[in-house]
From TrEMBL:
Residue ranges annotated for the S1 motif domain, each copy included: 32-103, 119-189, 206-277
Keyword Zinc: no
Listed name of the protein: S1 motif domain-containing protein
InterPro entries: NA-bd_OB-fold, Ribos_protein_bS1-like, Ribosomal_protein_S1-like, S1_domain
Species assigned in the record: marine metagenome
A GO biological-process term: translation
Annotated Gene3D superfamilies: Nucleic acid-binding proteins
GO molecular function: mRNA binding; structural constituent of ribosome
Family note: Belongs to the bacterial ribosomal protein bS1 family.
Transmembrane feature ranges: none
GO cellular-component term (any): ribosome
Keyword Ribonucleoprotein: yes
This protein's UniProt keywords: Ribonucleoprotein, Ribosomal protein
Length: 286
């Protein structure tokens, strides 16, 4: 006796229904349409996905259609849940896909990039905070990375997240304009005088300055120079002529005020060395 078996699939029926429904949705869109308030749903290395009309349709904005400025990854520009207007630039009824652009809603800022000048201050808007800096807009569609290294002259491990918040308008100096690579580089620290250059001018090597003990380790004191955001290095060998330097170091605490002599300024390396004993006569100098 032969036993007959039949294999059926409900999934294929549901899938065909969904395909028909999606085709009807796709029919509603045409190139040139503007989709209002699409919600950022997710990222990939090649673009950003948006939810249109509360789940009616998912659309992709390709990496190259996000901004006129260079973008390495969508997370440089977007946050999940944000709303953006989109321009429909392609409709594929066979693949049931709608392609969109954000940058094409705006004029290309690089067409008038010559309006910007190198080494000049401009107001920029903070649009995204990252561990390595902040993405800022000079104008809609023209964004630039403000790297952590360009935040401060003196703080080597500055965090943009601790200094700024999204929406802040800050001053920056344009340090590079590359129209071919569609890149603009900016710096925040250049909006202020280099404190090491100021020190070199006002208090050259050999002059005396006052400061406050900011921190102490096993072999040195770091002295914050008055009116300048600079920590000068004071080695224990430069504390006294007559006593043991290591023992002398133990006499000081954070907050102590000292007058010291400037021994060395390395502006390019952002280093200053000072001495306390050098403010006194050397008893061994006959």
């Amino acid at each position: 006796k032969v036993r007959g078996n039949a294999c059926v699939s409900r999934r294929q029926i549901i899938s065909s229904y969904k395909k028909e429904d999606k085709a009807k949705v796709i029919e509603k869109y045409k190139v040139g349409d503007i989709i209002k308030d699409a919600i950022v749903k997710g990222y990939s290395s090649f673009g950003c996905f948006f939810d249109v009309n509360n789940g009616e349709l998912d659309v992709l904005v390709h990496l190259q259609e996000i901004s006129y400025s260079r973008v390495n990854h969508p997370d440089e520009i977007f946050n999940i849940g944000e709303k953006h207007d989109l321009l429909v630039i392609s409709v594929d009824k066979e693949k049931l896909q709608v392609g969109c652009s954000i940058k094409q809603l705006l004029p290309d800022p690089f067409d008038h990039i010559s309006n910007y000048e190198l080494n000049k201050k401009y107001k920029v808007k903070v649009v995204k905070l990252m561990d390595f800096g902040a993405f800022c807009e000079l104008e809609p569609g023209l964004s630039s990375l403000l790297h952590s290294s360009e935040l401060s002259w003196t703080k080597k491990n500055s965090s943009a997240k601790k200094i700024f918040k999204v929406g802040d308008e800050i001053e920056c100096v344009i340090t590079e304009i590359n129209k071919e690579k569609r890149r603009v580089a900016i710096s925040h620290r250049l909006t202020k005088e280099n404190p090491y250059s100021v020190l070199e001018t006002k208090h050259p090597v050999g002059s005396e300055v006052e400061g406050v003990v900011n921190s102490i380790n096993d072999y040195a004191i770091y002295l914050k120079i008055n009116n300048l955001d600079i920590d000068a290095f004071l080695h224990y060998n430069d504390l006294t002529y007559s006593h043991n330097g290591e023992e002398e170091l133990k006499k000081y605490k954070k907050g102590d005020k000292l007058k010291v002599k400037v021994l060395e300024i390395k502006t390019d390396q952002q280093k200053v060395r000072v001495g306390l004993k050098q403010t006194q006569l050397d008893p061994f100098d006959w």
